[in-house]
Amino acid sequence: MSHDTTRRDLLKAAAIGAVTIAPGLTLIAPPAQARAPGQPASPTNRWGLLIDTSKCDQGCTACVDACKTEMGLPALDRPATDAQYIRKVDVRDPKTGNQHSLPVMCQHCAKPPCVDVCPTGASMKRADGIVLVDRHICIGCRYCMMACPYKARSFAHEDQTGQSAHNPRGKGCVEGCTLCAHRIDAGGQPACVEACSKEGGAAMLFGDLNDPKSEISQRISKEATSRIRADLGVDPAIRYQGI
Amino acid sequence: MGVRAVLLALVLGLFSVMGAWAGDAGPSFPKATSKALGGSCVDDPATMRRHHFDFLKHQRDDTLRQGIRGAKYSLKECVSCHAQVKDGHAVPVNAPGQFCASCHEYAAVSIDCFSCHATTPQHQQQVEATR
């Protein structure tokens, strides 16, 4: 049996981010690295979240507040129409009285229904699994809002001012959580995750589901996790623990 | 003859003055404030004047749909360099007389970039948010 590194082994190793270039000398790609300028998002990544509901406090809105600040969403105190990329949902089992509070945002499905129904191609999935709205071609029909089983999208009803530089948004377009694609592309993590670890209960973990060495992959391979409405078969990238 | 020559000289002189006026016509706009690129734009001014919309239109699709960052042309960078700061507050680039608006008004072009995109630079937004 030969111990020579074959091309296949090298490719396999490269796919998981570690390449043995000589015995005892291994190159490991650091996690969540900023993508080089000019490089497109890669299908070798699939960004996702793991949310531990046991650490999520019912009264805490750190993630929601951080999202509003980061994305420049105005709080007009009109809950029916205000844009919300992330919201806190309180659930209670009527039989046992067991209560949970959990943040729900775009679940960045592998098979997103919003993309299926979009008549213009504005609703789209990036190569790394982030589901976005291309507002340049969104006509505001809101089919995606109806198709989304997670109520994750919002519609801008009014003329907007004071937008955040990295979240252009305007009247007549649908919008939703971008998983902070602008931060991920720069090697960071979503604003909600950062706020949760600083001000909240550190219930949210961000990482690459395609990288078996990432903390999120390690945890979901060992611990029981679930996805909301897994029965729909849309394969969300957001996983929950404790619900 | 003498009178004719004087008249001709006067008329020619008038034309040359009008010619000079015609050359000066056009929008006046504030110069870029940022020295980030050594005081120069990403391309020469003539190319940018003629093609900036094409550059930006291609760039926006690459950035949004493919996630390509850090490319040569970017609307964010236009705003970043060309927005003026008055009394510590950034002036929107689409305000009357400002960089984007002055030319578009002169050329009677209606753009809708700024119905969605931020009109003040990100660094200035952060400075003003912390006040």
Task: Report on this structure.
The complex is a heterodimer of chains A (243) and B (131). Chain A has 243 residues and is α+β, with helices and mostly antiparallel strands. Chain A has two domains: 1-30, no CATH class; 47-241, Alpha-Beta Plaits (2-Layer Sandwich). Chain A has seven helices and eleven strands. Chain A has a three-stranded mixed beta sheet with strand order 10-3-11. In chain A, helix 2 packs across helix 6. The termini of chain A are far apart. The model of chain A is unreliable at 13-21 and 24-31 (pLDDT under 50). Chain B has one domain. Chain B is extended, with a radius of gyration of 21 Å. In chain B, strands 1-2 form a two-stranded antiparallel ribbon. The mean pLDDT of chain B is 82. Chain B has five helices and two strands, in the order H-H-H-E-E-H-H. Chain B has 131 residues and is mainly α. The A-B interface holds A 35-41, 72, 124, 126-128, 130, 132, 134-136, 159-160, 162-166, 168-171, 173, 181, 185-186 and B 60-62, 64-71, 76, 79, 112, 115-118, 120-122, 125.
